[in-house]
Design a protein that fits this description.
Elements: H1 2-8, H2 11-36, H3 44-79, E1 84-85, H4 92-117, H5 119-129, H6 146-153, H7 155-161, E2 162-163, H8 166-182, H9 201-207, H10 225-229, H11 255-259, H12 261-264
This protein binds zinc ion (2 copies).
């Protein structure tokens, strides 16, 4: 049967359709949870802005990704690709996946710290933090230039360090992508003592909080272990669901504002 499908539909189309369907199901279930157990009343204006900015990011990604990936590839090849050959046979698969995930999460953690530390990076990242109402789409609300920059400056580190077997790429990306996306859900769910096991909506809400005691806390993308190692972990209390947004309450007013956000946003302001 799969051979018949494979003869008529290209593999990339099967992967695209499968991923789109999976994301669609996850999104619909997530929205239902947000409506039933909201952490805070939803701001429709902020959610609509989430959608607009996510569409802008997606469009720019289609335009710039091939060029950014090509630049990243040049860097990887120049540095000598795949210093460490990872194995994917038997139990090696789990060990190799763990090595890649820990490295990826460490690199993402350092990048995220830098985005809050350096004004030029914060001027872009602050767009993500301007959401005064988190939602299932806030995870895609990022400045349009950040993804290409990540592909050129950060992702090549993994390509230089590891030769990753092709069959490991999709499971690792899914494993990594899902907790980060779900972390922005506006749901009142407390994991109690397990909040420090895996990034989750309450844990990440602390990172978006407008309350000063939460500034520069909970940076991790997947594993709070990174925050614990570097002293930036904040274990949320059972009823700790703070308001989110920029302390200045600055908001983009539309697509144009999203395009020029770093110019509009003060370069010198950071937290
Ligand atoms: Zn941040
Ligand atoms: Zn976030």
């Amino acid at each position: 049967m799969s051979a018949v499908i494979g003869e008529h539909i290209p593999l990339w189309a099967i992967v695209f359709i499968t991923n789109t369907a999976l994301l669609g199901v996850i999104f619909l279930v997530a929205r239902q949870f947000e409506k039933t157990f909201p952490a805070k009343p939803e701001s429709i204006g902020s959610v609509v802005t989430d959608w607009k900015l996510a569409a802008l990011k997606w469009t720019s990604s289609q335009l710039f990704s091939p060029m950014a990936k090509a630049c990243g590839l040049i860097l990887v090849n120049a540095a000598g690709a795949g210093w460490i050959q990872l194995r994917a046979d038997g139990w090696w698969f789990l060990l190799s996946a763990l090595v890649v995930i820990l490295t990826l999460d460490f690199v993402a953690y350092v990048t995220h710290r830098a985005q809050h530390k350096f004004p030029v990076l914060w001027s872009m990242h602050s767009l993500h933090h301007s959401a005064d109402s988190l939602s299932a789409v806030t995870g895609a609300r990022h400045f349009w230039l950040e993804d290409p920059l990540f592909s050129i400056c950060v992702l090549p580190i993994l390509g230089i360090l590891f030769k990753i077997p092709a069959e490991m790429a999709t499971p690792i990306l899914l494993l990594y992508f899902i907790p980060d996306s779900l972390a922005h859900l506006n749901i009142r769910l407390s994991l109690g003592r397990f909040a420090l096991c895996l990034n989750n909506p309450q844990y990440h809400r602390i990172h978006h909080s407008i309350e000063p005691q939460h500034y520069d806390k909970n940076f991790c993308k997947m594993l709070p272990l990174m925050d614990m190692i570097f002293g930036t972990a904040w274990a949320p209390g059972r009823d700790e669901f703070p308001m989110t947004g920029l302390p200045s309450r600055e908001q983009p007013t539309g697509i144009l504002d999203g395009i020029i956000w770093p110019l509009r946003h003060r370069l010198s302001w950071a937290h």
